[in-house]
User: Fold this.
Amino acid sequence: MLHRRIQQFILVYFLGLLALLLLKYLLSLSDYVIPGPVEIWQTGKSVFARYVFNVLDTMWIAVVGHMVSIILAFLVGIVGRQNSWIGSLIKAAAYNIQAYPIVAVAPIIFILLGDGLITRLLIAVLICYFPLLLSVIGILSEPVDSIEHFYVATKRMNWRLQVRIRAYENINKLTTVIAGSATMAMVGTIVAEFIAADAGIGYSIRTALYQSDLSKILTALFLIGISTSLYLTVLEWMGNVIQKKCQA
Assistant:
């Protein structure tokens, strides 16, 4: 699974790079606009070690932010699944908060918390959390009548049992959603670093952009894709393990 995902990413990456170089030569663009393959290779070698460290710095924040988002989504989703006044209020609050673009909210966060670790983590959570919440609420709000009817009839149903039943019956959907949301956590962390942070691969991309150095940006994108592919593979493996245990 890991080899296949890495190979797929590398294929897509180099196809995109090939298209970029093809555009360069068709339009006769200078190396200042789009660098040639030799310059891309040399720049990649010179910044590779530093960018690997920067990606690792970004990655661990994205992973922590992803885990926090999962916990919050389930906590809020368990309450929000109910067709009660509190459930409706929680869903309305979640929708309204998400209506504000992160670029509008981020300055407030930076003013209050600065540009350190907490800010990067919070923005990653904010971007990753909402898609997870929608999926969790949708799954936990859907009754499993064939199973729940027995526990309701015998008056043994409670909210914990109801959540377990619905989560168990939709375990495939849950694991897919959780794995898919990992990319949003990575995006959120990079956005936070790009806006105002002073560390991580997002900060490196911003610096390269100010320098108009596309070679560095391409190197950063390559490493981001590799690290994200590795994390997704781990999540998918864990999801498969959980599914097999639930089906056993």
About this structure: Residues 143 and 240 are 24 Å apart (CA to CA).
